[in-house]
Amino acid sequence: MKDITVYTSTTCSFCHMVKDYLDSKGLKYTEKNIAEDKEARMEMMKMGFTGVPVVIIGDEKILGYDKAKIDAALED
Q1: Which Gene3D superfamilies does this one have (predicted)?
Q2: What is the distance between the alpha carbons of residues 64 and 39, in angstroms, rounded to a whole number?
Q3: How does DSSP classify residue 70?
Q4: Which residues contact 71 (CB under 8 A, 6 or more apart)?
Q5: Which pLDDT tens digit goes with each residue over 57-75?
Q6: Within 10 Å of residue 58's Cβ, how many Cβ atoms?
Q7: Which of 5, 33, 39, 62 is the least buried, fewest Cβ under 10 Å from its Cβ?
Q8: Per residue in 2-29, pLDDT tens?
Q9: Separation between Cα atoms, residue 54 and residue 37, nearest integer Å
Q10: HSE-up of residue 1 (Cα within 13 Å, Cβ side)
Q11: SS3 string of 7-61?
């Protein structure tokens, strides 16, 4: 099983959709809320992202709620 990290913010509806999707698949993930965690925000920005959600599955980085990309990253 690949490690999954999701960068989110409290008011982001797409972030909630990503978490709900991962939950529906029974997947465990680490959530990093950039609104509450300055270090998480800096980590995400160092990767070149300024918006959420950012889903990291193994080495794959996915911006936004993209089920096809999430599923493809899980299969690799």
Answers
A1: Glutaredoxin
A2: 20
A3: H
A4: none
A5: 999 999 999 999 999 999 9
A6: 12
A7: 39
A8: 899 999 999 999 999 999 999 999 999 9
A9: 15
A10: 8
A11: EECCCCHHHHHHHHHHHHCCCCCEEEECCCCHHHHHHHHHCCCCCCCEEEECCEE
